[in-house]
Every structure is written in C-alpha cells, then in structure tokens.
Design a protein that fits this description.
Blueprint: H1 9-16, E1 39-43, E2 47-52, E3 57-62, E4 75-78, E5 84-86, H2 89-97, E6 104-107, E7 124-125, E8 135-138, E9 148-150, H3 159-163, H4 165-170, H5 176-196, E10 206-213, E11 216-220, H6 224-232, H7 249-255, E12 261-264, H8 274-281, H9 293-296, E13 300-302, E14 306-307, H10 315-319, H11 323-334, E15 348-349, E16 358-359, H12 389-392, H13 433-458
Length: 474
C-alpha cells in the first residue's frame, strides 16, 4: 500500500474488522475490539488511527514520518511514546497493567496516585499544556491542548467495556498484542464467574446507592457499570431505572426495603463515623429497628477498602482495569462459600465495627510481580446454588458449600419476592388448608435460615473498612 494515498472511509471500516493481526511497514499490530467500548482502531502500513466514537475525535499514531494527507485526524502522536501525563486515575492503572509505569511523568495531583510502585517525587504536576510529556490521558479531550487524549470517566460503560480501553492506551506504546492477551484473560475470567452465578436457588437482593447534598438526592444507581456488576454477581432487585423522584427520602427507603445488601458510593466525609453519617444522610433514625434486613445485619458495603497511606481510594486507579477481581469481591460478599480463599481487595463493610482500610504496601502488592497483570483462571461450573453460612459452620469445608433452600416456589431467581431477608411468597389460592399451613411453615423456616445466614455473614471476618468510587481524602 502506498503511503501517499488516503484510505477512504469505507475501506478503513473494512480494515478495522479484518484478521486478528496484520503487520505493516511500522509493524503495527491489528487488534480486534470485542465489547463495543466506544472506540475502534484502524491500522495502515505506516500509521494507525484511534477513533473515539463517543467524543467523535480521531487520533493519528505514526512510527516515522507524520502523514500529511489523512483527513479527519485531529491530533498526531509519534509512537511509542516515552512520557505520559494523566488526569484520570484509570490511565495509571492501564500503565501498571501494561508494565509501563515508568513512563508516567506527570499528573494533575501526583500525591493522589495510589500505585506504590511509582516514585511520586519524580512525577510533575501537569501545567495545562502538556509540557514535558508526549501525551496526556484525561477525561477531557482538550484539557492539555494538542497533547490531550480522552478516556471514559463515567459509569455508562459495562465493566468489560471500560476495561477494554486498555487496548486504546496500549496503542500509544505499540503493545496491542500484549493488551489483547491480558484483556482476553480478564474477559474470560469475568464471564466464567458470571456464568457460575446463574444457578443460584435464590438470588440476593442488592442495590447500588448514592446520596448527594448539593442538591439533596437519594439515588439508586442503575448505570451500566454498577448494574452489570450486580447482575453478574447473581444479585437482583426491583429497580430498573432508579427512582422517579430522587429527592424523596421516604420513596428511597421504600424502594430499598427488600434489600439484603446495599453498596454505597456516597462521598462520606466523617472518617471514623461514616456509618452514623450514612444513616443520617439516608434518613434512618433507628436503623436496627426498621425491620429491614440490610440494616439489621449491617450489610452496607463500599469500594474503598484499598487506599494509599493518605487515604486515597485505589478503586478508580486499579479496579476499573480489573473487573474480574471486582466481580470476585462482590461474589465473596454475596456468596461467601463460592470461593473461601478469595481475599477482598476493594470491598469494605461500612456496617462493621471499625473503619480500618487496607493501605497498599509491599505486603499486598509486589512491584516485581504485580497482580494487576496476572489473571487467575476460572473453572466453569453448574453445581453452585448458593451456600448457607450458618450451615457452613458445621460442614466439612467443601468449596461448594451447603446448598441453600429456595424461598420461592419454582426457583424463580429473578422474582422480586426472592432474597435473604425472609421475604415470603404470596399464599396459594384455593389450596387445602393443610397444604397452605405447610407452605407457610416452610417459608418461616427459610426466613429463619436466611436471617441466620445474614447474621452469620455479619459476624464473619469481612470486617469494617470503606467508597465513593471516586472519593479522595485530602
């Protein structure tokens, strides 16, 4: 292919969907995009074009001489780049997973970087023009002029869609093949664990929530990211589009009263008293006597257990890159007998007795062998139906755990009547009295089991530690 001929749009579209690997004069690798994450990559002999289809901007990458006759490309970068700036935490996580942490030369707030493997004393503060770096990854396509490259910053993408942007970042280092292999492993693990949660006898009810004070709102989060995570972990709930009126605290409380677990991303500020702050924010004056399972059993969870020494949450930096690990955290909370050896990384039980977070250190993150780039295999299984913690205490310790009884006749996993708090299905109309009594007795027995299980969960060693998905403590 001659380098002095522009590629028509139609041909570029064909190139984007061709064979898995195509090499040209620059030895650029052709990468398949799997999840419709909002970008595509078009590869030619001596350049590649990264199309951010969400922001409608195209970035050109070249290895030798910048092409001069390619229409529609707003910014050009010579690759591989050797110095990077970041205004968005996930960029640092992508660099870590790709083994390129040493290329991080500037950030908007260097002190807020949570990666212990980066020497923050050598990371400069970005000046708004990209001085001293080749590219600046940001949530704003124009934050640093011609050096700016946008990465997604909201939760409109599913966990795997967001993680696939590692291929986009990898293109600036010519590491597309490495990124593809890593993402394929992450995707396979995520999908495997997700599949293993589809055989639960009774799905737990869980909601993702957030309170804001300016303006005052009480939100049930139904963005693609949170919604997909909960569903993949086997949870269900009765809210598909959030609240009609998110300024009404009574409406919020009514909507989540069937919850067995609540996952919170409120920007809590009163460290050491955050559970009290949470109750106050959401209007619970006597939480232990509300008759609501997640309150009684203190099953309120957050995602900022893993922090820097200054209390900055690691979640936005590492967790978005590794959705397979986040999913395993969620499953370990909802179904603790699924994998008893899993150690929670980001999930923290706000309803616990303490608010101790886990500081990132050499004892839990090895810079020489970083777990960010290592994916454990998952074994597909159809035999896990949910385990009872109270029964588990007397079991032999099998990884499968004891099977949990189903609260709903017929095993309707998605029913709004399912859950661990003892929700009772409607009576059987026209049934004989003795049958009806038997059914009622069975439901009360199951309710006792579920409450015992939730109580046992509240006494396990998940222990108190704490998010806002984007919170920082300064």
């Amino acid at each position: 292919m001659r380098s002095d001929i522009a590629i028509p749009a139609a041909l570029a579209t064909l190139l984007c969907c061709g064979p898995h690997i195509v090499l040209g004069a620059c030895n650029f690798a052709k990468t398949t995009i799997n999840t419709s994450p909002g970008f595509n990559i078009v590869v030619s002999d001596n350049y590649k074009i990264l199309n951010d289809t969400t922001a409608n901007i195209a970035y050109g990458l070249y290895c030798d001489s910048q092409p001069t006759n390619i229409d529609g490309v707003e910014r050009w970068f010579k690759v591989p780049v050797d110095s990077v700036g970041t205004r968005i935490p996930i960029a640092s996580g992508f660099l870590e997973a790709l083994g390129q942490r040493a290329k991080l030369a500037a950030a908007d707030y260097p002190a807020n970087l949570t990666n212990i493997c980066i020497d923050k004393s050598k990371v400069k503060t970005l000046d708004g023009s990209g001085t001293g770096v080749n590219v600046v990854f940001s949530n704003n396509a124009s934050s640093d002029g011609s050096k700016s490259v946008r990465l997604p910053s909201n939760d409109s993408l599913t966990p795997l869609q967001r993680a696939e942007w590692i291929k986009f970042v990898a293109a600036f280092f010519n590491l597309e093949e490495q990124a593809s292999k890593l993402f394929d492993s992450i995707s396979a693990a995520y999908t495997c664990h997700q599949g293993n949660m589809q055989y639960l006898k009774s799905a737990p009810h869980a909601y993702w929530v957030e309170y804001t004070d300016s303006p005052t709102t009480y939100q049930i989060i139904t963005s693609a990211y949170q919604k997909n995570l909960l569903a993949s972990a086997g949870a269900t709930n009765t809210s598909t589009d959030g609240l009609v009126d998110n300024t009404n605290v009574a409406a919020f409380q009514a909507a989540v009263k069937d919850a067995d677990f609540v996952f919170d991303q409120t920007q809590l500020k009163k460290y050491g008293q955050r559970i009290t702050e949470w109750y106050s924010d959401f209007g619970y004056k006597d939480p232990q006597n509300q008759g609501v399972s997640f309150l009684t059993q203190r099953n309120i969870w957050r995602m900022d257990k893993y922090t820097s020494t200054t209390g900055v949450s690691n979640y936005p930096e590492f967790a978005y890159v590794r959705p397979d690990l986040v999913l395993q955290d969620l499953i370990s909370v909802l179904e603790p007998t699924y994998n008893k050896t899993h150690v929670l990384r980001w999930l923290f039980r706000l309803g616990g007795t303490t608010e101790d977070t886990t500081e990132i250190s050499s004892s839990n993150y090895d810079c020489a062998k970083p777990w960010m780039s290592v994916v454990d295999k998952c074994t597909a299984r159809k035999d896990f139906h949910g385990g009872d913690v109270d029964e588990e205490a007397s079991s032999s310790g099998s990884n499968n755990g004891d099977k949990e009884d189903n609260d709903n006749e017929g095993g309707n996993h998605g029913s709004s009547n399912s859950g661990r708090a003892g929700k009772i299905a409607g009576g059987v109309i026209g049934a004989l009295a003795v049958v009806g009594l038997a059914i009622v007795a069975t439901h009360y027995y199951n309710r006792h089991k579920r409450r015992a299980r939730a109580r046992a969960l509240s006494e396990t060693a998940f222990g108190g530690e704490s998010i806002g998905l984007h919170s920082t403590r300064r």
